[in-house]
Amino acid sequence: MAIFYRPVERDQVFLLPADMRDWLPEDHLVWTLLEMVGRLDTSGFHEGRARGAGRAGYDPDMLLTVLLLGYCTGVRSTRAIERACTTDVAFRIACAQDAPDHTVLARFRQANEAAFVDLFGQVLQLAAGLGMARFGTVAIDGTKIRANASLDANRGREWLDQRAAELAREAALIVAEAGAADDAEDALFGDARGDEIPQEYATAEARRARLDVLVAEFEASKKAPAEQGTGAKPRERGEASKKALAEQGSGEKARERIEALRRGEPKRGRDAKGVDPVQAAALRLAIARGRAAARVDAWLARFSPDGARPPARAPFPVEQDRKVVAARAALERALAARAAAAAGPAEPVKSGRQQKGGKTRKKKDPGQRVNTTDPQSRIQPTRKGWVQGYNAQIAVTGDQLIVACSLGRSSADDPQFLPMMRKAAAAAEALAEHTGTAMPIGIVLADAGYSSNANLEAKGPDRLIALGKSRDLFAAAKSTPASGDPEPGWTARQKMAHRLATPQGSATYKRRGATVEPGIGNLKKILPGFSRRGLAAADAELHFAAAAFNLLKIHRAQAA
Q1: Taking the domains of the chain in order of start, what are their residue ranges?
Q2: Count of helices and strands (H, E) across the chain
Q3: Sign of CA dihedral 492, 495, 501, 507
Q4: 239-292 pLDDT, tens per residue?
């Protein structure tokens, strides 16, 4: 019996134009994002956009939708989003088949930090309009999020001072080398540029006359080879010059050595007394570079017309030539010697461990360390070790909607409790004004990281703050439950301990873990690490990720 399959016709063209609405089901996330972005006030993203002549730019609403879709699906890299806009159906719908370049997305994300913070508030208003954001229970907790920097890039004050001194020396060396090279070229060329054609070859008539002379000399050399070689030999010329220099004083020897270097005739041996070592080293470096460049040009000239490589091995590039490297090192030594002489005698450098009175003195603690990649990030402790990042604070409602978030550099949580509680209260008031329905905060829950007398005694909504580990609190409430009202004269900490030991207080505090910890876990799926550097940029990205988190909540609530 024959087996029949569904036909696979990849070469079949569409008989009618394709409709993108048929590509995905109606309950897909991209349709929710398109609808929500259409309801938001995106004027902040349109401000500052380029207007006038030239190619039309991308619609900011489209770029916002593409970025939101990327963060909601865990795609934060702009390059990955660019690829998805050509391969993923949802991204192709979001960008309307006009895939933006990754640089456009990166610059859009960089230029709209303030708009991202405002977007977070607008998404909250949308959620409140749909009946979400129940403020009966608000849980506050912190999490460490990795910065866009390496933990190994932290340096102490001693290293920074040493690096600054090295950079200053390198800058001085570059300036001195440039000045010495300019002085040498000014002495060698004067007011000329240095690469002009000689006067005897400046015109076509002069060049033709010179060629005629060379041809005539070549013909004469073939007829009378014995007559060649007249004049003094190089060795004889060298001996004569040595005798002349010996008869002159040291000043004349120095001038002669410099003039020889300017003519491109370096000589072996030590320089005469009175020769400027920096000037001589700069001239030798110029000669070495010229000869290395000549070797490279000669090798290139050996190429045949058909492009075949010559049999000889290619010479090193000019700056990698061994003689150029040696001449440059000699110039650096001369400049360093001049700088050391100008600075005077240096103070002795003390080692990390010194013998003093027969005892070993240990090296001092370097103190505060700074990250050279993201200086505003800090080393943060986590349960799995240390991480280079920031401390993110999150306030989550009973229906797991993020209503407030902030970013800080300190690893301590307790100073952030009151600001986060005020932010949550301000969000409740703003949403109540927007919806016309009162949204008072019932109780605020926090773990032992926020326990302090200031947080326990401050005015504001009712709160439960743990004074120790949760398992110990629950065990104490189960074994020796408390009852009744606190005794008069008890401190705020004693009152909180008594309240947590009651069955009602223990049951209320149990809701903390189920409220805020799943929210933090899902938020870190969207934002496991920051893409941008700096506290302000990272805080804007945190608000954008929180807005994407809330949009996912809205989408899933509508689907349910």
Answers
A1: 20-46+55-111, 125-149+374-531
A2: 19, 10
A3: negative
A4: 555 554 454 455 667 777 777 777 777 777 677 667 778 877 888 888 888 888
